[in-house]
Amino acid sequence: xxxVQSKPFFIADQExxxxxxEGITRQFIGYxxxxxxxxxxxxxGAIGYKHQHMHAQTTYxxxxxxxxxxxxxxxxxxxxxxxxxxxxxxxxxxxxxxxILIDVFSPIREDFYETL
Length: 116
What we know:
Shape: globular
Low-confidence stretches: none
Radius of gyration: 14 Å
């Protein structure tokens, strides 16, 4: 794999915003081959459809309210909450109140990096 690395600083109003789905956008905060941090912005009602990937993921809820499902368990998460999902576990969310998530993946999501 080719070595990749983001710029050292992330200035939100200077970084590109990518469409990630209906009512969902994202910005790439920082990454290298071993880790990736992504800011994900959701409109109310947007759906992060259930999916799985080979990456470990931990997420912090900056704002809003989300119905989060990991495997067979569903919880309502709001600002200050978070979650962890191990690799290859089915997970997804529904945005109940407009909000922002900070996702961290290890290793880098190559499928995301291809859009940069």
